[in-house]
Specification:
This protein has helices at residues 22-29, 34-37, 81-95, 106-113, 117-120, 143-146, 173-176, 180-184; strands at residues 11-15, 41-43, 49-50, 66-67, 70-72, 77-79, 100-104, 132-136, 164-167. With 187 residues, the chain is of the alpha/beta class.
Length: 187
C-alpha cells in the first residue's frame, strides 16, 4: 500500500525459568490470547547450562532442563553468571535485534537486570538497547533471598529508563512476603 508503512511486531527474547526450558516457557506463553500473541514476535532460547540438579517441574514437563547460571541460596553465591551474560549477548547478536525481554522466574531476574547493565559496560554493549521488559514471577537481584552477582552490583544504581510490566501470582512467594513492590518501586 502506497503511503502506509507495515508496522513490525515487537521482537522479544523470552528467558525461561530455573531448571526448565525454552519449550516449557513457550507452552506457557502460547496459552495467552491469540489477540496478544499475533502482535508479538517471540524467540525462545534454551539457557547455556544443563540443569545441575532436580527440576521442580519434572512431574509436569519432560526434560531436558536448563539454567541460566548457578546459584547457592545458603551462601547467596553465583557462578557462571558472566558466561550467562556473554551467551545471551551473543544470542542477541546472532538472532536479533530484540526490542524487549520477557522473563519467567530466573529468566525474569535476568530480564530485570539486563537493561541496566550496558551503562556499566558489563553486558549488552554490542546490541541495541532494550526498550521494555515483561517480568513474570520475578524479582531483582539483591536482598536476603537472591543476593547479587558481582557483575550485577551496579545495574540498579541509577534509574533504569526501560518500561516494565510485572506479573505476580496470588500464591507467589514474593507476594506472600509483601516484598514485590518494595524491590521494584522507588520509595
Amino acid at each position: 500500500m502506497q503511503g502506509s508503512q507495515m508496522q513490525r511486531k515487537p521482537r522479544i527474547l523470552c528467558l525461561h525459568g530455573f531448571r526448565t526450558s525454552d519449550e516449557i516457557l513457550k507452552k506457557m506463553v502460547m496459552k495467552w490470547p491469540g489477540t496478544i500473541l499475533e502482535k508479538l514476535d517471540l524467540e525462545f532460547p534454551d539457557a547455556k547450562f544443563p540443569a545441575n540438579g532436580k527440576s521442580d517441574v519434572e512431574v509436569l514437563f519432560d526434560p531436558p532442563y536448563y539454567e541460566w547460571y548457578q546459584y547457592d541460596e545458603k551462601s547467596l553465591g553465583y557462578w557462571n553468571f558472566e558466561d550467562c551474560l556473554s551467551y545471551i549477548e551473543n544470542y542477541m547478536i546472532k538472532h536479533g535485534p530484540f526490542g524487549g525481554l520477557l522473563g519467567f522466574s530466573q529468566g525474569a531476574l535476568l530480564a530485570a537486570v539486563l537493561p541496566g547493565m550496558p551503562k556499566e559496560g558489563v553486558a549488552l554493549t554490542k546490541v541495541p538497547r532494550i526498550k521494555f521488559a515483561i517480568l513474570i514471577s520475578g524479582a531483582k537481584f539483591g536482598g536476603l533471598k537472591f543476593g547479587r552477582p558481582k557483575l550485577a552490583a551496579n545495574a540498579f544504581s541509577a534509574l533504569i529508563e526501560c518500561p516494565s510490566l510485572h506479573f505476580i501470582g496470588e500464591k507467589d512467594f514474593l507476594k506472600s512476603r509483601d516484598c514485590f513492590t518494595r524491590i521494584f518501586c522507588e520509595s
